[in-house]
Amino acid sequence: MKQKLLITIITLCATIGLSAQHATIAIFSLNDFHGGFVKDTSKDIPGVAAIWQTLDSLRAIYPHNITVSAGDNFGGSYFYKATKEKPLPVFFNKIGIDLSAVGNHEFDDGVEKLAKKWADIRPAGWDITYVCANVTDSLGQIPLYMQPTAIREIPISPKKSVKVGFLGLLTSSTPAQVSKSRIKGLQFSGDYKSAIEKYKHQISNADIRLTLMHVGTTMRNGKPAWNDPDEANLLSINDPFFHGMLTGHSHEPVVGRINNTQYPAVQGKWHGEYISIIKCRIDTNTMKVVSAEPELVHVNPNITLDSEKQALANYIDSLLRTTTIGGEPLEEKIAYSREQLIHDRSDKYKQTRMGELVCESYAEAARKAGSYPDEQVIIGMSHFGSIRGGFNKGIVRVLDVGEALPFANSIKVFELSGKQIKKLVDFGLHNEKYGWLQTGWLEIETNAHRHVRRLNYISPKGKRIKIKNRKKYLVAVDSYQAEGGDGYGPFYFIPQCEIKLKGLPNTMEAFTKYLKEIKTF
Predict the structure, then answer these.
(1) Which of 31, 191, 290, 396 is the most buried (most CB within 10 A)?
(2) Termini Cα distance of the chain
(3) What's the confidence (pLDDT) of residue 19?
(4) Where are the alpha helices (DSSP H) in 211-352?
(5) Per-residue confidence band for 8, with pLDDT thresholds at 50, 70 and 90
(6) DSSP per residue over 139-200, as a string?
(7) Which CATH number among 3.40.50.10420, 3.20.20.30, 3.40.50.10490, 3.90.780.10 corresponds to the domain 326-518?
(8) Using one digit for the tens of pLDDT, what is the confidence trace for 302-313?
(9) Residue 367 is inside which H or E element, if any?
(10) If one looks up domain 21-315 in CATH, what number appears?
(11) Other C-beta atoms within 10 Å of 359: how many?
């Protein structure tokens, strides 16, 4: 019995001795949060309180940790805009994020706003560092408001810390996804490998080295794969210098290993629906990484909140009641949807009913601004991606409209020939990268290869008018698309064809007014 007990004690001591030589460092990441503050279980948005509570639960399991962001922290959220950006620095401060990749949506308000990093409203003692190694200014330098790399130290004992190094990258497709005026003078390189080689020495003294990338991944045949125009360059990255890759941008849950080097790679969909983790086991004597494992943790929107998280949830609810747009609170009810209207960016090769309603609202906004008669042909158009979601069945609030059209772009009106419109629609039905063109008051007939055969305008009163090649018609479209966004080149919306109308509302305002008028749909 004594011998058996002695063996057990020896075994236990050996186990403790082994674990004492190793520490697990957990690197948590959010990506594509997009200002998803408000809980909405129908859209799989858990809300900020649930994200924070889940992170705290994970930190209890992995006490040696850091939390970062893989970019697109706020773009695409009307709540973020309407509340004057205040909740984001508050939330990031509370969950400990002070390091972020640069996402394409970080440029939504232009480089000057990005450079300020919420200077006027950020909490005391908090700041944020943006990392990006493949964006340069007109002088060929990385802009001052970002840096290629960053190192953070994680204490593992009173006398020892683990250094974690991050090298940032941003998708080279950014110029096609941001208004040109907001990124003027910037260059976005798809030669990611060269950017890594140029700057990796800055984190060579880090114990753990990761890429923090707003460059999209996807799952193919059960394994992570790149979802980026410069996929070939990404596949050529096989430097064992790095221990893992935290990715974002493509709004898909991804976990596994990528490239020939089999880097752990992880991406947590969007809106905080998942938390990405790379768990690095490090030998605390040699400070070498023994293993690195990727993991995704789903955030339960109904997780039990402690008092601190509940207070944050209450704060978000209060903003819904007190934030007004045009005198109306965000929670104000404006219309009723008879059915669920789905507009899903992962299923983007279709015309949706939501897309039709949005485009109809643009056309009718132009009709009012120009005092055009009912018989005037006005076709509404939108690229798929500017509509960020649909409506649930039932009551539609001001916030719901804003979150569907968070960018609140201006509306532009063009006078185009029937032939020009057909070419435009034909391109929009073959826009494989960004999704199909959405239209309002337009009936599209195609051949077996989905090329346009005939277009008919269907008036709000149901009258059908054939679109003829040589005749001129009006097209109302959001400014992002008209200025070349999502692949719509300048030859589709020629500046000389634009008709300047006074009093045109922005896209969100036009949609709100239209829904108020039709009331039920």
Answers:
(1) 31
(2) 79
(3) 52
(4) 231-235, 307-322
(5) very low
(6) TSS--TT-BSEEEEEEEEETTEEEEEEEEEEE-TTGGGTS-GGGGTT-EE-S-HHHHHHHHG
(7) 3.90.780.10
(8) 999 999 999 999
(9) helix 353-369
(10) 3.60.21.10
(11) 27
